Amino acid sequence: MLFSLFIILFHSLLNPANETLWGRLGWEGFIYGSIVALRLTGIVALAQLFLMTTLPQEIFRLFSSWHRDLGLIMLLLLDLLPVLLEEMEITAQAQQTRGLSWNNLVSKIRAYLAMIIPVVIKSLNRAHGMAYLLYLRGYGEDVQKQPAGDTFLPIRAKKGYRWLAAVSVSFFIVNLALLIQYRLL
User: Fold this and answer.
1) Structural domain tally of the chain?
2) Which tops the pLDDT comparison, 89 or 29?
3) Is residue 147 over pLDDT 70?
4) What pLDDT, on a 0 to 100 scale, did the predictor assign at position 170?
5) How high is the pLDDT of residue 151?
6) Cα(2)–Cα(7) distance, integer angstroms
7) Which of 69, 113, 149, 167 gives the lowest tally of CB atoms within 10 Å of its CB?
8) Interhelix angle for 68-97 vs 105-136, to 10°?
9) Residues 6+ apart with CB under 8 A from 29
10) Is 112 exposed, middle or buried (0-12, 13-18, 19+ CB in 10 A)?
11) Is residue 18 assigned to a domain?
């Protein structure tokens, strides 16, 4: 709901074809923002209705008919979301007991980062563990066996997209450095 209000306000203020409605708020942007917010709310409501009325096995069958890995991804995603919400609540409670302040914008950004970073790290550890379990159970066809005595970790036949990971990490580090330089973090 709050996100929808933000969309309406954003479009009302920044749409270049605005006719003034009130102060700096424009009528054209208000209507366009309302339409976008209603679409987003409808999509979220339909997705929630779909997830509440469909068994996970049926979702797996539906997405597996398109691609084998897609069904597994959807099942893992549905399994992960409640765990992420629970971890966010636990982390928020821990930060509140440590006296995290929510006074101004900078402290709110720091508070959100203090909550999100541990959850992301735990999620990455969980994803790594899940990937290793899938490997141990023999899932996937692109894994080649290593010679005896080397190591038990797999060699991936497809090595593409490592550059994408490197660029993403570099982008994150540059953004973090800029936030620190301008004292936003």
Assistant:
1) 1
2) 89
3) no
4) 73
5) 47
6) 9
7) 149
8) 140
9) 11, 12, 13, 14, 15, 17, 18
10) middle
11) yes
Please give the pLDDT value at position 155. Answer: 46
Assess contact for 7 and 36: CB atoms under 8 A: yes
pLDDT at 178 over 60: yes
CA–CA gap between residue 156 and residue 160 (Å, rounded)? 10
Q: Which residues pair with 32 in a beta bridge?
A: none
77: number of CA atoms within 13 Å, CB side? Answer: 10
Looking at residue 26, its amino acid is: G
Q: Whole-model pTM above 0.70?
A: no
Q: What angle do CA 115, 91, 46 make, to 5 degrees?
A: 80
> Strand 155-156 and strand 143-144: pairing?
antiparallel
Report the SS3 class of residue 26.
strand
Which are the contacts of 36, defined by CB distance < 8 A and separation ≥ 6? 7, 11
Residue 19 lies in domain: 1-53
State the DSSP code for 152. S
pLDDT digits (tens, 9 = 90+) for 39-53: 888 888 888 888 788
The answer to whether residue 42 sits within a structural domain is yes
Instruction: For residues 39 and 52, give the distance between their C-alpha atoms in angstroms, rounded to a whole number.
Output: 20
Q: Give me the mean pLDDT over the 158-178 stretch.
A: 65
Is 19 part of any domain? yes
Residues contacting 87, CB < 8 A, separation 6+: 118, 119, 122, 123
